[in-house]
User: Which sequence fits this backbone?
């Protein structure tokens, strides 16, 4: 295929979009397009084998739609933030039908549940699917793996279905009943703030707004800021009271009978971080001293996201600004990967007039400096002549 330069605004942009599909479909000599499977099969494969990437895209987009997230991932050629951008744009165009009722964690079909605070917890520890105990060696054998055969081997090794898991009450609720955990730092709001409809209000947005902003934050930024707090550039270093992953029912009120009805389910990761570091205790008047709590939640199995969110929730609860992770405006303005992507990438747009003015000012300043040097040189020459 030959390459040609296209001149003209709309025509050039259309050609650039066509070139993007040319690259995505193997036109840059990365594969044989004739032998490639249909795109629908690629999307199906993404849903099966790219579970973490699909979950991350849904979390950062704030939109639970696995197949659409997989489609966006294919469209974005594996760029997770770009895929989140695509999915969030779609979400913004859809009508709002009905707000869901609060999720009932007690009804979660648990896939994984651990506590690093206690060895024994009611319902037990359940490791589930995790990479926590795997070696980070590249498995070259995956190139020859037959998925169906390997799945049969895994099912046989696990011994089949052991039935339903026991009831697993939340560890934090038990600690709260014992008087060891403080109540939320702010009273619950009658109506949670929706930051997609209302801007964040500083210096101290409501907790529902902060949690929503954190829940949609870019994974790497969340993890980096949480890490900075753990290293001392914030004041929170929690112990995980509980981390659980599972499917929870989504319920809304029936429009005619005004009773809760299930309309489906979503997979969530929930984290309760007990903030047991120095000075992270609460006591009012004659009350007993209690530990504070940070909360994190994410679509899919996104454990680092949920833990990071719990850390930052604890950091922002105090409203201090001793470190970057404690600074409310710094954190909430900079964790949104889609906004930061747009602002950074806008530098690729034409800035001809702006840069021309910079060049003009630079040339003028240099001319004035040259004149000053010439004047100084002439003055020095005159003094030497005298």
Assistant:
């Amino acid at each position: 295929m030959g390459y040609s330069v296209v001149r003209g605004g709309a025509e050039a942009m259309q050609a650039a979009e066509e070139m993007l599909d040319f690259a995505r479909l193997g036109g840059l000599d990365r594969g044989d397009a004739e032998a490639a499977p249909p795109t629908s099969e690629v999307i199906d494969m993404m849903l099966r084998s790219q579970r973490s990437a699909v979950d991350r895209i849904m979390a950062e987009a704030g939109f639970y739609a696995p197949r659409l997230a997989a489609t966006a991932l294919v469209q974005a050629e594996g760029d997770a933030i770009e895929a989140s951008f695509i999915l969030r744009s779609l979400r913004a165009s859809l009508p709002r039908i009905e707000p869901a009722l609060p999720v009932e964690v007690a009804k979660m079909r648990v896939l994984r549940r651990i506590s690093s605070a206690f060895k024994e917890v009611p319902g037990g520890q359940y490791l589930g699917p995790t990479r926590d105990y795997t070696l980070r060696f590249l498995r070259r054998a995956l190139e020859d793996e037959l998925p169906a055969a390997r799945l049969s081997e895994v099912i046989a090794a696990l011994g089949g279905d052991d039935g339903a898991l026991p009831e697993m009450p939340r560890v934090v609720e038990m600690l709260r009943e014992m008087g060891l955990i403080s109540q939320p730092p702010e009273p619950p709001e009658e109506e949670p703030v929706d930051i997609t409809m209302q801007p964040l209000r500083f210096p101290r947005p409501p907790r529902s707004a902060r949690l929503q902003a954190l829940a949609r934050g870019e994974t790497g930024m969340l993890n980096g800021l949480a890490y900075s707090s753990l290293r001392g550039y914030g004041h929170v270093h929690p112990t995980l009271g509980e981390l659980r992953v599972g499917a929870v029912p989504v319920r809304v009120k029936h429009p005619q009978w005004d009773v809760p009805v299930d309309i489906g389910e979503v997979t969530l990761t929930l984290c309760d971080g007990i903030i047991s570091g120095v000075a992270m205790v609460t006591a009012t008047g004659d009350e007993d001293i209690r530990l504070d709590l940070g909360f994190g939640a994410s679509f899919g199995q996104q454990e680092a996201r949920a833990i990071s969110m719990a850390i930052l929730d604890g950091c922002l609860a105090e409203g201090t600004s001793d470190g970057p992770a404690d600074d409310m405006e710094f954190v909430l303005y900079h964790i949104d990967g889609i906004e930061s992507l747009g602002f950074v990438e806008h530098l690729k747009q034409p800035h001809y007039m702006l840069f021309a003015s910079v060049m003009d000012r630079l040339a003028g300043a240099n001319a004035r400096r040259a004149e000053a040097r010439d004047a100084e040189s002439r003055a020095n020459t005159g003094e030497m002549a005298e």
Q: What stands out?
A: The chain has a mean pLDDT of 87. The chain has two domains: 9-93, 105-187+198-335.
